[in-house]
Design a protein that fits this description.
alpha+beta, 2 domains, 7-stranded mixed sheet, Immunoglobulin-like, Purple Acid Phosphatase, chain A, domain 2, 9 helices, 25% strand, 538 residues, single chain
């Protein structure tokens, strides 16, 4: 394997940033977990001085007949390499129809390789449709906690109901994961969607906003290396509420920016003068650490600084989820980012959040869908919210990091959904540490035009510390943006109940994330009736 200096030297000798080189370099990485299968070290009897399953278990990306099971061996999780030697370790997995494992249906072995941080990603095939299962791992003389997972209904099935939650933004320093503690008590949740900012890359800063616990890692800069990204992920996953909720049901995950670097756009840093070669090397480290820690399929294995994470999931014919990536392929934010006018620069048709290939895949998927509800699970707000006015003018100001930064692409997408008569489009969003319900138009600046879709935006789990129920200038915001049905800035998550007839989103908020046992309440609920775009308050 190359170290960072060797990578930089080779790339520079090729005359610049070479994705061809990265593809060749990472082709070897893609085969590493499988080379270990033949390693004699994997057959060696292993004993651990302490529990190697400190990070728990997780599952994810289920379909009708399979699911990904995940764990990571780390007897000393906060040590470099998790306290593991640079050896391959055989891990046994089991999955059963009951929690006591009297009805075991599949078992097998996998290899925890040092190249992937001794993480394990098992794709269990041949399972029954729409069924709950229990699973566990064994390595040496140690047995993992038991996790619960499920498969999805068959593609042609017509389920009566789906219950799921979606979340984002869980800054470790800025609050406790009370929302996950509450979510764990809900026996009806089938799935969790995490829409980004699973970790934050910021330094261990004693002066951080609302700091209630400290980041690990460097104090004078953001994390940058593979070891540092791994350490940060481990710190987050050690939280018992977070890894407990992972064990409760399968998750679908996608990233936003903080899994790598704040407000990055493709291979462009938000800061000026950043070496693009080093930036891509850092992105490769961030993406590998993310893959290692998430219950993702092998087809998501990163290739250097590239990792395909957009994909779909079908809950029978009830709901089709299209999980997007609005970071890796986007163009640079127009107008130097920030809150800016929706001017010619922002309206350039070449601006994109999706990139050409992902946009084509999304359109094809929407056309082919046979689902009652068609859901975009993505990162940044699609509602074109006017957040103020340019001084001494009536010109509105909008967020360039959100969809207004690619306003033409966003309006074209809404027009596509409208023209193709895509049934019941719903957008799920995270990112901005606040709750929103938006009735989307082709152009939200024209509120008298038809509503095309509904957007539900979930606030942060912790990011920003304690929020407020009624932000300042709320009345002015709603007056300037008639498409907005609800907005507040408390912490929490959104719980969704979906039937063929209606979609209900409950906004669950935690009134205090700075202290244990914060009060949790349902602040508001909204319904969308099938065939009638737009949400209404219940």
């Amino acid at each position: 394997m190359f170290n960072e200096k060797e990578l930089s030297r080779i790339i520079r000798n090729e005359g610049g940033v070479s994705r061809r080189f990265f593809m060749a370099y990472s082709a070897a990485l893609a085969s590493l977990p499988f080379l270990g299968v033949r390693a004699s070290a994997a057959d060696r009897k292993v004993t651990f001085a302490s529990n190697p399953f400190t990070l728990g278990v997780a599952s994810g990306d289920p379909d009708a007949t399979s699911v990904v099971l995940w764990t990571k061996l780390a007897p000393k999780p906060t040590d470099p390499d998790g306290g593991m030697k640079p050896e391959h370790v055989k891990v046994v997995w089991e999955i059963a129809e009951d929690e006591k494992f009297t009805k075991e249906v599949r078992t097998g072995t996998s290899i925890a390789s040092p190249q992937l941080g001794h993480s394990v990603h098992v794709e269990v095939e041949g399972l029954k449709n729409d069924r709950w299962y229990w699973y566990r791992f064994r390595a040496g003389d140690a047995t993992s906690p038991i996790g619960r997972t499920r498969t999805l209904p068959a593609l042609n099935a017509e389920p009566e109901k789906l219950n799921f939650a979606f979340v984002s933004c869980q800054h470790y320093e800025q609050g406790l994961y009370t929302a996950y503690e509450h979510m764990m008590k809900d026996e009806n949740i089938d799935l969790v969607f995490h829409l980004g900012d699973y970790i934050y890359e910021y330094p261990n800063n004693p002066k951080a906003l609302a700091r209630v616990r400290a980041h690990s890692g460097p104090k004078d800069r953001k994390i940058q290396t593979l070891d540092e990204y791994r350490e940060r992920h481990v710190q987050y996953r050690l939280d018992p509420a977070l890894h407990g909720m992972h064990a409760k049901c399968p998750w679908f995950v996608t990233w936003d920016d903080h899994e790598f670097d704040n407000n990055y756009a493709n291979d462009i840093s938000e800061k000026k003068g950043v070496d693009p070669i080093q930036f891509l090397i850092q992105r490769a480290a961030a993406y590998q650490a993310y893959y290692e820690m998430m219950p993702l399929r092998k087809n998501c294995l990163p290739k250097g600084p590239d990792m395909k994470i957009y994909r779909k999931a079908s809950f029978g014919r009830l709901a089709e989820f299209l999980i997007l990536d609005t970071r890796q392929y986007r163009t640079d934010q127009p107008n130097n980012d920030g809150i800016r006018p929706l001017n010619e620069e922002a309206l350039k048709p070449t601006n994109t959040l999706l990139g050409k290939e992902q946009r084509g895949w999304l359109q094809k998927s929407l056309i082919a869908s046979q689902a009652e509800w068609n859901v975009l699970a993505q990162q940044v707000m699609m509602g074109m919210a006017q957040l103020g006015k340019l001084k001494d003018t009536d010109e509105g100001l909008y967020s360039m990091d959100q969809w207004p930064g690619a306003a033409q692409e966003r309006m074209d997408l809404m027009k596509f959904i409208q023209d193709r008569k895509v049934p019941n489009p719903i957008v799920l969003t995270g990112d901005i540490h606040s709750n929103w319900v938006n009735n989307l138009h082709v152009d939200d600046r024209q509120p008298d035009t038809p509503v095309v879709a509904t957007e539900f935006v979930a606030t942060s789990i912790t990011s920003g510390g304690n929020g407020i129920a009624k932000p300042k200038m709320l009345d002015e915001l709603l007056k300037a943006n008639p498409f907005i049905q609800f907005h507040n800035r408390e912490r929490g998550y959104v719980r969704c109940t979906v039937t063929p007839e209606k979609w209900v989103s409950d906004y669950i908020v935690v009134e205090d994330v700075l202290k244990p046992n914060g009060k949790v309440v349902t602040r508001e609920s909204f319904v969308v009736e099938s065939g009638k775009p737009g949400a209404k308050k219940i």
